[in-house]
Please model this.
Amino acid sequence: VYRGLGGLELPDEFKQRDDLGIRGGVEYGLMSTTLDKQVALRYASGNTFPTLLEIRIGAVSRGASIRFLSQYPMESEILYPPMSYLEAWGSSRVDVLEDGRMVRVIPLEVNANVFSSTIEQIIGRRKTLHVSSLEHTVHEIRNALAEML
Model:
């Protein structure tokens, strides 16, 4: 899958290896990608030297296609969950496009965070928290009324 970056510079963590010899970083929000390289290049346009993330996917870390509910189904958008880790592998390269523009291509591998909570789990925990708080408040009110009587 591909992701185009226009006007953004990747942090140094993608360029220099850390103490473990790894280059990469975490995407904190939903990560939008596409199956169509041309779509990603459009998102990277408008920059003097656009960047294209060329993301290798594995059997486990797959994103979710939202084509069926997208306003732009022809973009073939694939979403990855928050906290997905992008690890640089191989060397970046410069490709020359048909129109003569150059694009920096960075090969990455994505590891989706499968331990993230679903929205249903988050709502369930919040509901439990609110119900427990309400039960505690009711208990305190009953005790206060009992002391008054």
